[in-house]
Amino acid sequence: MINIDRLLKNLKDIGEIGKGLDGKGISRLAFSKEYYDALRKLDNLARSKGFDTKIDKIGNLFITYNPNNKGKFIMIGSHLDTVKNGGLYDGALGIFSGFEILETLKDKKRHLNHGIILACFNAEEGSEMGGTFGSRSICGNNIISDEFKEKLAFYNLTLDDVKSCEMNLSNVVAFLEIHIEQGGTLENEKYDVGIVDGIVGITRYNIMINGTANHAGTTPMNLRDDPIRKLPNVINKLYKEAKKFDQPFVMTIGNIIIKPGMYNVIPGSVEVLTEVRDLEQSNIEEYYDEIKKFVKADEKLEIYKNIEKPSVKLDENIIKIMIKTAKENDYNFKVMSSGAGHDAKEISKKIPTAMIFIPSIRGVSHSPEEYSKPEDIELGVNLFYDCVVEIDRSI
Amino acid sequence: MINIDRLLKNLKDIGEIGKGLDGKGISRLAFSKEYYDALRKLDNLARSKGFDTKIDKIGNLFITYNPNNKGKFIMIGSHLDTVKNGGLYDGALGIFSGFEILETLKDKKRHLNHGIILACFNAEEGSEMGGTFGSRSICGNNIISDEFKEKLAFYNLTLDDVKSCEMNLSNVVAFLEIHIEQGGTLENEKYDVGIVDGIVGITRYNIMINGTANHAGTTPMNLRDDPIRKLPNVINKLYKEAKKFDQPFVMTIGNIIIKPGMYNVIPGSVEVLTEVRDLEQSNIEEYYDEIKKFVKADEKLEIYKNIEKPSVKLDENIIKIMIKTAKENDYNFKVMSSGAGHDAKEISKKIPTAMIFIPSIRGVSHSPEEYSKPEDIELGVNLFYDCVVEIDRSI
């Protein structure tokens, strides 16, 4: 059994850094002074407990236990950076759960076939280089461009710095990440824990409704070419088609941009920003095919793609081990997909990967209100521990 | 008969100033160098023709003919400033039509009972002090506040400067403004000219749809409190109720503001900016009463007033004279209201006032594409001339 009090104390200690900087929450932004203060604090803690540590040039920290292994490793971890005015749990829970696993293994003096590497990633939440920069860099998954180099320079980094962080992952047999759910499904459906089988794909299209801007006072209603008149139909169609798909399919209208956007001008254009996420890429395509047909039928409408990040399915073998372990220990668990991206998504391109979700109260995240119950964390981290042990034994 | 070629030459000469500054159009913004260049050019022209002129401290120019009258005046005029990248006609057509009236009266050596003052107003289009600042100031209609004084300071003006511009208008028997329609009604319904009987009131309400912002990836569709779902009903209701009123009633949704307005966040709120204009204030109230009932029936909706500028009815007696004059000269005219505010709206609070509208091609204004046909202008200004003569004779 892991020690939940020790875990929560470590988590809360680190949460003091950057607290109250931008509101009630924690600001431990990637590459910030607060980030590096937290990183050094954790590094000192790990070394004081006798673990090997290494900090790379982009601010990732690796803490290793059982260095005298047969040259094979299991990697666990998450990210240490937060959003601005964020919560205690997003990212950091994965790191301190991982640290608790190391401490428990060490306390028990348990025999391990593999070395256990706890990876603490920088810049998952976002930097000039986009999200999951730390995990992307150890995988060598960055897309190198002049723009990318310019963005690195913003943090006094060179391409060589980033390349020096690439790791030989061929001797890592598995990556496991524990993370808060950031949604309300587990709490709502009364599950103890989630076993994540995939990370949804994200596709974004913008729909443009064209009209003619004109004077709102002098243009009679019957002489208007007002794009807002068509907006209700567009919105209703977007929701209606979304209803045809089941969870984890989600469709969000995140913004509607109206130009010129003044009281006294009939708008010239309305742009509807849409996003769809699902684990099945074919569902996303089917949805937007239907929307494209709808758009094509009206010459005033246009649609164009903004982003397409394909979904990722996590490793079947590891998920099987996790499900077996959860069943043996009578867990009330849900196999589910993640609606948000995670370091695990990048790592899964190189190493067999899976994730565990801890229930998020009211599904809140990226907020000082973020909360997960100690009893849920304890259950989840104990499962995590058992899974690490089982993977170590069986792979 | 007025001289249309002379009128258009003067109009186009002034239009060279500030041309191409911000695009293809004319930028002669209130208080700008271009504005004062134009003002001095017109002042020089007027003095070269033997008219009396006076420029006040806020940049209004007054050109007077027949100073040897019996102490009674007729005022004509419009504004000399333009919007950014505006057209040739908005405001300036009223000034050069007025100037053409003065020149024609002088050429004809016509006996007049009244002095004719051509007022060229500054800052109708807007400045820190809001629209119609020039005409508002001669009427003493400014609302004096600390904020107002601060805004004046932005133009190196003091309250004393503004007060020095107030005119004794008790000896002015009428104000007449000729202006482009800025709408498509006259062209569309094939009228030569419009006789304006009132200026619509403008009322603006914002409708707020409240929801709960949340993660667009991790919040299942059935657990969302998404305010955009209600937006189609709100928009449809706004248009449906607007249908119950006839011209000149117009309702415009000028903007929809969604917060936080990101692809990956379910919005927390949607704000719909609405504006209604009509000549009958009671129609505006009836419309919004219905909308308020609709809002009240849904606890997620709120409504609040932003602006209420009441409508103004122009002077019946002067309108009668204008209609009589138009009929006698076989004009194909429409008695109509103005959907836009004008200097005439401010002046009408102090002096019997009316307006003449010249057709705007395609209703375009505040744009380099603004255009009125020479033949329409000639017809309109000839009616304007006849009306001035008739008012001089009969009032």
TrEMBL record, chains A, B:
<dbReference type="GO" id="GO:0046872">
    <property type="term" value="F:metal ion binding"/>
</dbReference>
<keyword id="KW-0378">Hydrolase</keyword>
<dbReference type="InterPro" id="IPR036264">
    <property type="entry name" value="Bact_exopeptidase_dim_dom"/>
</dbReference>
<keyword id="KW-0862">Zinc</keyword>
<feature type="binding site">
    <location>
        <position position="79"/>
    </location>
    <ligand>
        <name>Zn(2+) 1</name>
    </ligand>
</feature>
<dbReference type="InterPro" id="IPR002933">
    <property type="entry name" value="Peptidase_M20"/>
</dbReference>
<feature type="binding site">
    <location>
        <position position="179"/>
    </location>
    <ligand>
        <name>Zn(2+) 1</name>
    </ligand>
</feature>
<feature type="binding site">
    <location>
        <position position="366"/>
    </location>
    <ligand>
        <name>Zn(2+) 2</name>
    </ligand>
</feature>
<dbReference type="Pfam" id="PF07687">
    <property type="entry name" value="M20_dimer"/>
</dbReference>
<dbReference type="InterPro" id="IPR010158">
    <property type="entry name" value="Amidase_Cbmase"/>
</dbReference>
<feature type="binding site">
    <location>
        <position position="90"/>
    </location>
    <ligand>
        <name>Zn(2+) 1</name>
    </ligand>
</feature>
<dbReference type="InterPro" id="IPR011650">
    <property type="entry name" value="Peptidase_M20_dimer"/>
</dbReference>
<dbReference type="GO" id="GO:0016813">
    <property type="term" value="F:hydrolase activity, acting on carbon-nitrogen (but not peptide) bonds, in linear amidines"/>
</dbReference>
<feature type="binding site">
    <location>
        <position position="90"/>
    </location>
    <ligand>
        <name>Zn(2+) 2</name>
    </ligand>
</feature>
<dbReference type="Pfam" id="PF01546">
    <property type="entry name" value="Peptidase_M20"/>
</dbReference>
<comment type="similarity">
    <text>Belongs to the peptidase M20 family.</text>
</comment>
<feature type="binding site">
    <location>
        <position position="264"/>
    </location>
    <ligand>
        <name>allantoate</name>
    </ligand>
</feature>
<feature type="binding site">
    <location>
        <position position="125"/>
    </location>
    <ligand>
        <name>Zn(2+) 2</name>
    </ligand>
</feature>
<protein>
    <submittedName>
        <fullName>Hydantoinase/carbamoylase family amidase</fullName>
        <ecNumber>3.5.-.-</ecNumber>
    </submittedName>
</protein>
<feature type="binding site">
    <location>
        <position position="204"/>
    </location>
    <ligand>
        <name>allantoate</name>
    </ligand>
</feature>
<feature type="domain" description="Peptidase M20 dimerisation">
    <location>
        <begin position="200"/>
        <end position="298"/>
    </location>
</feature>
<keyword id="KW-0479">Metal-binding</keyword>
<feature type="binding site">
    <location>
        <position position="277"/>
    </location>
    <ligand>
        <name>allantoate</name>
    </ligand>
</feature>
